[in-house]
Amino acid sequence: MAGPVLASTSYILAVAGGTLLVAFGADVVARRLGFPDILLLLGVGVLVGPILHLAAVSTLLTVAPYLGMAALALILFDAGMDLRHYELGQLPSKAALLAVLAVALSFLVTFPVAYYYLTGRSGILALLFAGALSCTSSAVVVPVASRMSLPSDVRSLVHVSSALEDVSAVILVTTFMLVAQPSSSGLPLVALVVLPLPIGVAGGVLGGILWLEVTRRWQARPYFSMATVGFLFGLVGIVQALGGAGILSALILGVIMGNAEPVRAFLRPYLRWEGEVVLTPQFRQFHSELAYVLRAFFMLVLGMLMVFGSGYESLLLVGALIAALLLVARASSVEAFLRLTHSPREGNLPLVSLSARGLTNSVLVILPVTAGLIPSMQAFLDPTLIVVVISVAFTSGGVLLYERVPSIHSGRFGERPPPLSPLSPEERAALYQAGRGTGTPSGPIDSVPASPASSSPLASSTAEPAGKPLAGTPEEPPTEPTGGGEAPPLPPGPRPPASPRSGRHAPSSEETDPRSPPPPLPQRPTRGR
Fold it and tell me: Whose CA is closest to 147, among 411, 403, 410, 327?
């Protein structure tokens, strides 16, 4: 009897050790090549499972949903600690708008394909599949966005919107599962759909306030980081048991922990708190590493669950079609978001690129499988994995393009510079008097290029430096420079108003007076300054 026990123990230890080594190696390779490590983890899982048959599918299906939810809670908790209170402002409303647009369009384009090609025209199964794939995965998007050179407002928008998308997809799938299998709680379906958000928010706020006080008292104790993980998992479990969105409470708990001092300053008149809360780098590193290990193990499990059976070619085509439709839906939702909020175009490419599916979608697909609602696991898992691989590959290409092409950071990729704008007679006269014109006031200076690379309205090789007297004008002897040849400081006073066309200040009466001597220039500036 000891033989099977020892064999199972050896198997579990081998799987656990191999997972840690594979996770470390995948992170090293992914950082060097510059793409998400999820592709490597899925590939190793496919090698171990469907190809070499070293894993038991029934055992993996039992533990996969719990590992996925634990990893998702840790990742959202870590993402919440990266958000700062001064970045929030209108961020929740903008993130909610982007999340609603993205989830709605993704759901609408996925449902018809699932209804006609995957579920045998079963409405409830098509709703479950479309709801599971309607969101991006925070487990993939948040770590990638944290490593990109994004503006802080765009990065915060990605973090919050991806978390809200996860919450929306969880609510959708949970609702459809309640329709398929009515709950015995006695609550109406409307209450079960509406309650998760407020319960999740309330649980996160109350849990965050409680754990701030615990952190103030015990943060210097050994193993406090591990105690925080225990509190996080317990909070998520309690909120979900009460019918709330547990992963939303994990995000809010992270936001409160990451903004400990502003939160304590706001509550100090009511709770009379003393001392301070300082999260150490070891605290953050512990949570990041634990979340990464859980996510890596789940991705390996997902790859092991692949089934290469009959009809796999048709599932491959259906998965590719769904992935293409999801990309179109993501681009459309981002375009609508930018137009409605009048946001800068610099965020167009990163918001579209960061649309990868992954851990959240896989967990939501496995939940109906473990509940017995789906007769064929292959019909759901295989297309999901294909969508995950294609979307992650698209995200990798978009991130690489954004990081390697600097012109994308200042606007849309491939956008042409604005056309030449004509100058008015007053501007030509001002340029002539300032010594920057190449012709007479009524000469051929008709237009200037509105190029952002140069602040001068006439950036050409024939342009003269500011302050140099015009040809034919008697030059007066300059004053003695002070400070070792440096030009004397400008006299105090208000600066002239800015010119609406050239971007420089309009010349004042002193500057346009030919009798006033120009300031001396010790050297001629080089081109490009």
Answer: 403
* pLDDT digit string, tens, across residues 345-388: 777 888 998 988 988 888 888 888 777 777 777 778 888 888 98
Number of residues that this document lists for the chain = 529
List, for residues 37-90, the tens digit of each pLDDT value.
777 888 888 888 777 777 666 666 677 778 878 888 888 888 788 777 766 667
Query: ∠215-220-225 over CA atoms, to 5°?
Result: 65
CA atoms within 13 A on the CB side of 502: 21
344 Cβ contact partners less than 8 Å away, ≥ 6 residues apart? none
DSSP labels, 416-484: PPPPPEEPPHHHHHHHHHTT--SS-TTSS--EE---TT-SSSS-STTPPPTTPPPTTSPPPPPPPPBTT
**What are the tokens at 389?**
């691989």
Identify the band that residue 464 occupies on the pLDDT scale cut at 50, 70 and 90.
very low
Domains of the chain are: 10-186+286-410 (1.20.1530.20)
Judge contact between 343 and 127, C-beta under 8 A: no
- Residue reference for tokens 């108003």: 497
Pairing assessment for the beta strands 421-422 and 447-448 based on DSSP bridges: antiparallel
Least confident of 93-97, 280-284, 434-438: 434-438
Return the bridge partners of 421, or none. Answer: 448
Q: Token pair of 189, please?
A: 């379906």
Q: How many helices (H) and strands (E) does the chain have?
A: 20, 2
Task: Write down the pLDDT at residue 10.
Answer: 77
pLDDT tens for each residue of 97-116: 999 999 999 999 999 999 99
Answer for the pair 437, 425: CB distance below 8 angstroms, yes or no.
no
- Whole-number Å distance between alpha carbons of 334 and 100: 11
Predicted pLDDT at 421: 57
Q: What burial class does residue 519 get, using C-beta atoms within 10 Å of its C-beta: 0-12 exposed, 13-18 middle, 19+ buried?
A: middle
HEC letters along 254-308: HHHHHCHHHHHHHHHHHHCCCCCCCCCHHHHHHHHHHHHHHHHHHHHHHHHCCCC
User: How far is residue 419's CA from residue 299's CA, in Å, rounded to a whole number?
Assistant: 50
Phi and psi (nearest 5°) for 421? -110, 130
In the Cβ-directed half-sphere of 332, how many Cα atoms lie within 13 Å?
Answer: 15
Indicate yes or no: pTM above 0.85: no
